[in-house]
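Render this sequence as a predicted structure.
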Amino acid sequence: MRAEGPGTVEGPGLYVYAVVRAGTPLPRKSGGVGSPPAPLRAVGPGPVAAVVSAAPAQLRARRRDLLAHQDLLTQLAASGPVLPMRFGMIAPDEDALRAQLAAAEAGHLAALDRVAGHIEMNLKALPAHDSLAALVAGDATVRRLREATRRRPGYEANVRLGEAVASALARRAGEAGRRALRDLAPMARATAGGPEVPGCALNVSFLVAQADSDRFRATAERFAAAHRDHVDLRVAGPLPCYSFVGAGAGTDAGGRSAPAPVGGG
């Protein structure tokens, strides 16, 4: 399979949404990418199958199609474990897809077993820009620079103060985010660091049992409320388990590397 860029996907081929266990029911209201979306079907030579549709002749990463892709994965996850594909994953034809599925069968089965009964929750820690008063009260360097700027205002003094404030906000957000990670990690089967996000001090995902998702969110939201002067903590989920089905699929609750499937895209 090839992952097309975020701009335009050119047909022909099969648009691949996910890998599932053979026999997983497809959503009755299939939806999907394209206008109108092509019918869904399952392609697979054995115990695993790919959920696909005909790739649109031209597909752009518009909001409508991104949301349709995500919604279809959510519907699939209601029927069983899912190895989600990123938006824009195209297989050249059915024969090539069957060959890839057969070659990666063992890895896919292991990954499906791993995420069965679980969802992904994501946590982002951003600087609390609305907490300047608390920052000044708690940071001697910022307090000193603010007083110096008041006594002798000027461009350089303002720059130094601005840099100190930005640095302190980021540091406080990072410290609070790491405390949140320590508190939440025991509630997850595994964790996985996410890509760097501009302005974000921490981006981490958690593999959480579906039965524990409400408790996880409630714990995260209590932490966010208790530390709102230090961090803008944002919780997203439940999500498809993107972060736990590829190479480098995170670490378990004891800090060990988690097993990852092979060849899945």
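Summary. The helical segments are 63-77, 94-103, 105-115, 132-138, 140-151, 155-184, 213-226. The radius of gyration is 23 Å.
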